[in-house]
Structures
1.
Amino acid sequence: MKITTLSHEQARIEAPVSDFDPYADETLNNPYPHYEALRELGPIVYLKRYGAYAIARHAEIDAVLRDHVTFCSSAGIGLANFHTEEPWRKPSLILEADPPAHGRTRKVVAGLLAPASINKLRPTFEQEAELLVDRILEMGRFDAVPELCAAYPLKVFADAVGVPAEGREHLLPYGDMVFNGFGPFNERFKERLAAAQNSITWIGEVCKRENLTPDGFGAQLYRAADEGELAPEEAPMLVRTLLSAGLDTTAFTLCNAVLSFARHPDQWALVHANPSLARQALEEVLRYESTFHSFYRTTTREVELGGVLLPEWQKLLVFIGSANRDPRRWERPDTFDVTRRASGNLAFGTGIHGCAGQMMARLEGEIVLKALAKRIKSIRLEGEPVYHYNNSVRGYDSLPVSVTAA
Ligand code: OVV
């Protein structure tokens, strides 16, 4: 093989240029054919509407996420570059930080959310899932978003953090704004930002020590500050991280699970027949209909990626929702198959920024799916799902369904 060194000029010419708009309603309605087209264009493409490069194949995404030195997070994981543009809120101390600063805060939050600590929540989480299943069976026909998918994390996760019951309606709109912020500053984001001012105020208040229950994750973060593991002003910021990242995501994951099973009754039959498949089935939901679809990294130096030379401080769009459908990595990627090995999917990212709450998310998902599997024979769609448009996460506002008891 002849080894050649690309000059800047050659390298730029070799990146296919695309007019693709990842944030158009039409794209979000069904992004998968668009992802396929992007993957086929090449290992990396240039999105001229946004002035950003994009990667949609599993291999490049995995490599980029593992190289946090070259592809940093401190410039923001949306399109805005925090070095040149003012962020809409103070940057997250974990998500929008690089080593060494990232390591210390990440360690404290990872400790809270480690399996040993969250497994203690299992009995409570199971009880809450049973109560919700009782209710939906009684209703028979209902909207799965408010009655199940949103209700569950709004109860169990918000309780676990220790926020008051009153005002929890602010949690999802706040997270919605945060996740819109992982795209461009478009009309969608501007509208939600304008509409969510009261939610921003509420979040600011509940992150304070005096507004948190004494036994939750929030209080534990303040105790970590008492012990010198965190600076005093870092504790409320990390409570904010839990409340930003932990509600919309799990609510939408449950939406994607319910819809996937309603559309694939043969797959539900397998989980119903064998509820111990719940955890593995959840993993396949995360692969097949990933919740978090896209975000950015920023280059810290000139670097070659997929044969293209990227300049320093270049925004790079990473489509993890596409990596999870890449035929280079998965057999029959567009088939929802709960019997497959879906581990290795990038739904929670990978590398040092891999989701710190992923074990919590899996615990919630597994418990809900298992509770449903044990008692519900069929899940039927009874009307058109109402999609919730967001710049980076996929979920629903309404899922009219009916269920029948086992
Ligand atoms: C992973 C994630 C999503 C949203 C917000 C944050 C993290 C945060 O750290 O605030």
2.
Amino acid sequence: MNKERKLIVAGNWKMNKTVAEALDLVRGLKLELANVKEVDVVVCPPFTALEAVGKAVLDSNIRLGAQNMSEHNVGAHTGEIAAVMLKEFSVRYVILGHSERRQDQKEADALIARKAAAVHGAALKPIICVGETLAERQAGEMQKVLETQVRGSLAGLTGEQMEESIIAYEPVWAIGTGQTATTAQAQEAHAFIRGLLVKMFNETVARRVRIQYGGSVKPSNARELMSQPDVDGALVGGASLEARSFADIIKNSI
Ligand code: 13P
């Protein structure tokens, strides 16, 4: 597929996989994806499997991501994980502001923006998630919600940092439901987000930022989604938990 931006497909394993299971999965992925160069491939295991998976992917084209990070660098923050700790395990990417954390941990845009600053401060790349709920979409508020989230979560980033950031558009109603957004719905939201980046930064920055789609991505719908001009990859949940389906999503995207 001839794309303006290099595709980036990331697997968000969420709260799945023990160390043994994670190693099993990553062994399978290394075999399946050994020759893939056209797509940036990232896996995001739970914190407890980062060290093992980080070692396992060192000699491969697979990069490592974390699912969250503290806004603080060190100190009295029980249960939190700092950038320097992630870097020990060769982490390159950090998912921020996933809708499950926005909902369960009440993460707000301002906190996500501070975390994004910390991620860049450590020379890591954030994958910043945004997306509307079904009720918001049905109320005709998709654009309003996306604008608030994008402006709030990216507040304070420089143009240079923005270019090194990834945005994941994940409509909440499509996550884990099997109900994927149509290609038209995905393209419309992605184009809207890119338009916001033009206003917040400039044309050049907006053209360089990769925007992933997330929400029930499967091998069968990956090609169609990725063929949209403003869809630059995928953030995959359920289908990333099995080597064959994650690899097929990547192969079908090329
Ligand atoms: P599913 O692919 O399971 O719908 O999850 C998407 C997601 O939330 C990725 O971050």
3.
Amino acid sequence: MDKELLKNLIKQMTIDEKIAQLMQLATPFFKGSSHEGQITGPMEKLGITNYMVQNTGSVLGASGAKEIRKIQEEHLKENRLGIPLLFMSDVVHGYKTIFPVPLAIGSSWDVNLAKKSAEIAAREAAVSGIHVTFAPMVDLVRDPRWGRVMESTGEDSYLNSEFARAQVQGFQGTDLTNDLDRVAACVKHFAAYGAPEGGRDYNTVNMSERQMRESYLPAYKAALDAGSELVMTAFNTVDGIPATGNKKLMRDLLRDEWNFDGVVISDWGAVKELIPHGVAKDATEAARKAIEAGVDIEMMTTCYANGLRSLVENSEIEESILDEAVLRILQLKQKLGLFENPYRGADVKREQEIVMCGQHRQIARELAAKSSVLLKNEGILPLKKNQTVGLIGPFAESNDILGQWSWLGAKDDAVTVRQGLHKKVTNTKLKVAKGCGVEAGTEAELEEALEAAKQSDVIVLALGEDSEMSGEAGSRSVIQLPEVQLKLIEKIHELDKPIIVVLFNGRPLDLHGVFDKSNAVLEAWFPGTEGGNAIADLLYGDVNPSGKLAMSIPYSVGQVPVYYNYFNTGRPKDAHDAQIRYVSQYLDIPNEPLYPFGFGLSYTTFSLRDIRPSSNTLTAEQGLTISMILENTGDVAGEEVVQLYVQDLVGEVVRPVKELKGFKKVFLQPGEAKEVVFELAEDALRYHHTDLQFKSDKGEFIAYIGNSCNNVTSFPFELN
Ligand code: BGC
């Protein structure tokens, strides 16, 4: 069907059919769903009729080929014009084969593997009947109190943009119409949802347009440039107006300036939330503001269903604005080939074959290992197979390692640390004890753990936050481990045996009481289905750690937000004698995070030498080529992430002390050396000026090259 045919179809639609097309409801509302019929009460409350449901445009949260085929079949029996439903779900870091959480994926700095993971997630979702995933989430994050940092690839707009692009390509492929193993991507949450005041979810976001364009918008733009078919609005305000009713953001910027012609969907209930936000007096006004702002689909509330008709009848909005929104939705259905094949990839038999297949699990294992970050190692890792290991802690045998946004993944499918270690060593070499729960424990549990520890040569302490402690609505003001776990480590520490801490968490934690009482720390995040295997691979050195932090680990919560690309201030701490009081500093803690962005250790050592820029000046026409030699100087193979940062010494507005401009992840055998080359062009030096123009300034710059943001070698250059 081409656009004209779709327009003709719209001409045949009644106004109620159009409005229903803009509505998205959860699975239980639909005939054929396994929960069918449980929803009469909620329907009445929402003020919607069976007729509206029969004409609804899309479904939230359905999964499984059998159920989705059935719902579609029932729908098409009753839908007058035969318009198929769109099925949308959150397949954020895997469908059933769960990959590490996105913050971990960001820490892999492995864009190709991230793309592969999105491709697998899409394949599993598509064969199970899903058409659209609510991913990637690309919100830039700087505040670990916010529970949703785990859904983001971190604190840097360049890194986030690389992953945004890769994930969209992985989900969508290059031909959504014919490649039935792909799903449409929906980049979220537009815009700046990752910057809520105080790290409290859904809270106000307050920043200048310039800062938003500079740091927060690039990753959404990268996702759109990669072809993301949908955009989801954010819950927060942007310059005083909730994103979901924000014309300047959604129409002027997204539609007009960026020419986005795909579908915009509100976040869950966000249209109705315009009322408590205080910009709409009732549901009808909320509907008007959202549709005027360019929101095509209202997720889960029914302001459109109940309000749009009267708005058109009273000439408060034109019917053409509905037609526009309907057209975009029908175009997406067309692109997915649903008019020809409303069941698309949904295939019960193939679903059984490919969902959670061995190959998918293998990639999940690889990515989990690459995403873990070795923060500390006083020579005790990797473990030796003749050592007796005391595996202790609430995560020793826990399968709560998938993260909060893996609702289709089953914990029972997850490999625990114990199971992973068992594949490496025999029972006799492993003493396992829980020690305590995540937030509470008993004396008996503690005693048992101390006993196990005494019988061991080395202790692996598996600690962390359970998955509900981060994720959506998972903000916390204290980001240390719960006290009971700090007590556990303290008691074990008293035994004076080597301690390796493996951390499971969705946010960077305040690691006081952990890093200072251990000899090695491995940040495993929520590693996903294959977590236990990946961790065992790392602990025994079958895989060499190569992850680098995508988000700073704060020294303590008092310095949050803490991030690497800060401004120098007029009184930088290191510019004065440390005795002087009047500099930008805390009196009680350092300014620096405990572990900075880009940081992560390896079991081998690398040397980075012969760094040679092609020139000490660059121009708009002629960029710089920076070459160097990276050598593996240790005795095991490994990967290193070489990072290029730039500082603009004098700007029209203040420029960050460093900004990531490139990175390369390089694998080297022991003794092997390779040339690493970066190209730096003038456009990488552009930034948003006070008039919002995106351009560079001639003048002096410094390039920094290294293996974390603060372990670098630098050289000056000029832009002429
Ligand atoms: C979240 C979104 C998610 C949506 C649908 C909302 O609460 O903010 O990220 O896609 O629910 O499940």
